[in-house]
Design goal:
Layout (H helix, E strand, L loop, with lengths): L1 E4 L9 H9 L3 H9 L29 H15 L8 E7 L2 H18 L2 E7 L1 H9 L5 E4 L9 H4 L17 H11 L4 H14 L1
Parallel strand pairs: 2-3, 2-4
Antiparallel strand pairs: 1-4
Helix pairs in contact: 1-3, 7-8
């Protein structure tokens, strides 16, 4: 369960904006008060259930609103905006009471911690997928289950901007280089390290 961002969108293409949004979410509170299933906060693309990723360090802090506001200030300056209230984001999800509850929680986090405007939009699954496929969104809900016990099951989705389930438009030559290097690495520990380097870029 995760939110994908459209890096081709004017607002979401800004790295500091993406950092601000990520740090402004209280994942543990989401788990404790909304999901209530004992889940682990997602602090990276590859979950700790995957071989080699069991004890990895988080790439960022959960619920760090002060740092989030610092990144937002940088983003606003880069985007030519003077106040968070000038910014409105759309958060899309496919129709479901559970997805709606999560989206409302995230919406409240972003409004309270960043002072931006967040509009929720829901659609039936096929319409939602069509919007993702045409990059007609800013932030949207998705989910993915690893098909095999290896980090590449998730990392390879973002190998190129046109890879099947890469709805982000994100592209990185360094990311590709690391995954290609891992693909030919025979030493298992070195291979995992290369995969983690790639994940850290993402």
């Amino acid at each position: 369960y995760y939110y994908t961002v459209n890096t081709q969108d004017e607002i979401m293409s800004n790295l500091n904006m993406r950092k601000a949004l990520a740090l402004a979410i209280d994942r543990q509170s989401l788990i404790d008060n909304v999901l209530k299933g004992g889940e682990n906060p997602a602090m990276g693309l590859v979950p700790p259930s995957i071989n080699g990723f069991e004890n990895k360090e988080p790439y960022f802090s959960d619920n760090a609103p002060e740092a989030a506001r610092d990144f937002l200030s940088q983003a606003l300056e880069e985007l030519g905006l003077s106040d968070p209230s000038e910014l409105t984001l759309s958060l899309d999800f496919n129709t479901s009471e559970a997805h709606s509850a999560v989206a409302q929680f995230i919406q409240n986090n972003w409004i309270e911690n960043l002072g931006i405007n967040v509009e929720l939009s829901n659609a039936e699954w096929q319409v939602h997928l069509d919007n993702l496929g045409t990059q007609n969104y800013q932030v949207a809900r998705l989910g993915w289950s690893s098909r095999y016990n290896d980090g590449t099951s998730l990392l390879n989705m973002y190998l190129t901007p046109t890879t099947g389930n890469n709805y982000t438009g994100w592209d990185s030559e360094e990311y590709r280089r690391l995954l290609e290097q891992a693909d030919s690495e025979l030493d298992s520990e070195k291979r995992i390290d290369l995969l983690k380097e790639a994940e850290a870029l993402f």
